Backbone:
């Protein structure tokens, strides 16, 4: 059996229909915490224990200097990140960003590729 926790997020009607067709339980009560191996404590203090769980976290930019720099940020259900263009330049001319702060998902290989692109673009901006 599969349970999908909305945790306060909206769910499109089409997605809900598809989940219902697959007999997925949709849990609308917010999650208070996850304890032990895979026990979900809901906001009303009810507990649901599973054999295993998959979770996605929300990334939050915690470095104060990034907020002071005032780069434009993007927000989505996975969290917040610095908005960049294809060359990894931020909304502040000459400031580039890469890695987890500029791409959600925590992928080392994508961060390395983005870092290469940011480095090339930063060099190009200084030379040309």
Residues:
């Amino acid at each position: 059996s599969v349970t999908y926790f909305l945790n306060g997020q909206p769910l499109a009607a089409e997605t809900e229909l598809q989940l219902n067709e697959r007999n997925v339980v949709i849990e609308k009560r917010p999650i208070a915490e996850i304890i032990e191996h895979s026990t979900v404590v809901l906001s009303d203090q009810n507990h649901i224990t599973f054999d295993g769980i998959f979770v996605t976290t929300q990334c939050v930019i915690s470095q104060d200097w990034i907020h002071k720099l005032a780069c434009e940020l993007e927000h989505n259900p996975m969290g917040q990140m610095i908005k960049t263009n294809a060359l990894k330049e931020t909304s502040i001319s000459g400031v580039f960003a890469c890695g987890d702060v500029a791409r959600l998902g925590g992928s080392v290989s994508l961060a390395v590729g983005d870092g290469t692109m940011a480095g090339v673009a930063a060099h190009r901006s200084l030379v040309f």
Notes: Helices lie at 13-21, 64-69, 108-127. Residues 108-127 form the longest helix (20 residues). The chain is about 25% helix and 20% strand.
